[in-house]
Amino acid sequence: MTLRLACVFVPQLALQAVLRREPEARGFAVALFDRAPASPHARVVTATEEARRGGVHAGMTGAQADAACPTLRKVCAAPADVATAQAALCDLGYAFAPRIDSESAPQGRIFFEVGDLDRLYPEGEGAIAQGIQARAARLGLGVRVAIASSKGIARVVTRARELAVVAHGGERAFLAPLPVTVLQDERDASDPSQARPRRVGGAASGNDNGGAGGNGKKRSGATTLPEVGVALQRWGIATVGALAMLPAAEVALRLGPAGARAHRLATGVDDEPFVPRLPADALEEGTELDYPIYEIEPLSFILRGLIDRALARLACRSLACAGITLRLALDPRGLDVREILIAAPTRESSTLLDLVRLDLARRPPDAAVVGATLIALPARVRATQLDFQRPAGPAPDRLAATLARLAALVGPENVGAPRAVDSWREEAIAVTPYPVSSAARAGQAGAAKGALAVRRFRPAQEVEVIMGRDGPTALRGSATTARVLIAAGPYRLHGEWWRPPEEDGDFCRDYWDVHASDGAIYRLHQDQRNGRWFLDGYYD
Amino acid sequence: MLEPELVAQLVTAERLRDRQGCCSTGIGAIDELLDGGWPRGALSELCGRRSSGRTSVLLASLAAALGAGQATALVDVDGTLDPRGAAAAGVALDRLLWVRAGGREALKAADLLIAAGGFGLVALDLGDGAARIPSAAWVRLKHAAERQRTAVVVATPRVTLGAFAASAIDLLARRPLFDGAGPPLLVALRTAVEVRRHRRSHDVAAASTNLIVKADRGPPWEPV
Known about the structure:
The complex is a heterodimer. Chain A is α+β, with helices and mostly antiparallel strands. Chain A is built from 14 helices and 19 strands. In chain A, strands 14-15-16-17-18-19 form a six-stranded antiparallel barrel. A four-stranded mixed beta sheet of chain A has the order 5-1-6-7, sandwiched between helices. In chain A, helix 4 (about 80-95) runs parallel beside helix 11 (about 295-315), helix 11 (about 295-315) runs antiparallel to helix 12 (about 350-360) and helix 12 runs parallel beside helix 13. Chain B is built from seven helices and twelve strands. The N and C termini of chain B lie far apart (about 65 Å). The interface between A and B is large, with 68 and 80 residues. Strand 12 (about 415-420) of chain A pairs antiparallel with strand 5 of chain B, so a sheet runs across the interface.
């Protein structure tokens, strides 16, 4: 079977990373600077189409850019933005393939196999490429997609076309009309989509990755592709097809390894290996803030963006969020790390945000926040086989979302299945996680027995008790004030002698059941260590 | 000619349909009064003051629903559920969703649970100090219950739902039973059950019965 690879390329990755963080800036003139735009040494690295139409181009200072385009919005990409955009791009690949190749590619480009997607996309590879673009748009990325039989060819095509499918065996014919500049590697030259015209092979003013690359630098001892481009231009070779017509040995002799590689690509030959890898376990989204945030409400706006983006990436992999680790960078230094428990995996953004806000409200950060990183723990939401003999019950994913919402509403410790603790203390109680799947809830059905129940005050309420010859005769407390009509007891409960009294162990209580004049039958006890009376609850 | 014993076991098609649309209370006498139990897709009210047996009836309903394999939830405003007592009443604790929520959060929690769908019975225990709840909240819960065909039982100390309840029963505490021989011991609680509202019948004056709920002692007792 022929290998079919999709290459997904994000032009201007750093700029797109910033626009992904600030989606409201889309459609406006935005210029990306290599450092804080307020700095006098800041230079434009790249700009949106709107800004380029306004006259902004790479290399301008902030003042020059303002003069050219008064409505220009000046931004600077943080490393976290670029990293998360690159991670989102990887997740885009995992939406279509279990393994992708991104390590060997420069930032902003991934490869994955699409040869086995024909059942999902019977319309053909063109539909696959369109599907990839549509999914990328949902992640906030504008991408170029090319499908070809090798990595190198697919990479070259993404430099020339927004969307392209190169048929197996038709690589040479497809590449022939393209300009020879498409053979340049991003590590050697900036993206040709940059609007500012420049000499072929000339020193670039920046690259797609926020100026982080080594553009324009000559590699020691080897001819670079820009130099090949200059030579080819001097020879009058303008298209890839013209380069392919030249004898390979002569090109290699005159232009070195880089020339030979360019010639092989021009003839449709590529031996670059496809090295796919599995996705990372956790998924990270982060941002650095321009100014410190002191209050939870504005911080939640930032966190909502992080959660939305993380969930969109999880959705690419058909996963849900099973837990959140939130790392807040504090001003001027310090880190606030908190784990946020989720009752069951969910994909509901509002639920997760509620949980995060609840946690922040309970334990506010010690200082203003200047950066936030959200690590989402992925988990699979599994479908459940229903039982013919039992009611279907709530759908697992809806129940999971409901449990998470309930936990956000009342606190995770107040939602779950009750459990009687193995203790002599009557008030001891525990809550265990409620099973999400109906299979876990299935079990031997019990029968209603109709035993008399006790409603327990938690904590037990301290009361004043007047004692008579046969027991309590009256009681007074916040829950009731009444005469005692019948008193049954006392019955002593003594336990936990192995723990010292200082640790609230070794308790000794005399219990009474009293029928009070208000009609209720109360259960109360006297602590034999200090003589105080407590109302435990009432029979009901 | 059918045998009289067989005739006694026959039920009419209308009555059978009604019973299928109900969630048993777990107590046969109350099921008889309500023609099968708590109606699905509607709100029901279980009204009783302290020591009237309200919690015991509620736990019996939860036990019956869990026993029938239905997903069941209890929204507990005061957080007064006693797991040992519930287990003694037959409640499968590991399958009961218990939500402790106070005030308006309880209504919101009940609404979330009903809207999730799939729950056979959602019990809302308003505790002792039932605050005034706006009618809009009951309307919302009622519509949600109708959509999801969930039986919603609201346990209150006093009449709260009014006309929003499809079925309502009042529990009136009677004199409790104490064991007179030797040291006194609470044996059982007596209560009268009266149907205040019935989803089908308007003549509910005669619909009442008496219950005795026996105490089930947990730990061994040591008389002093």
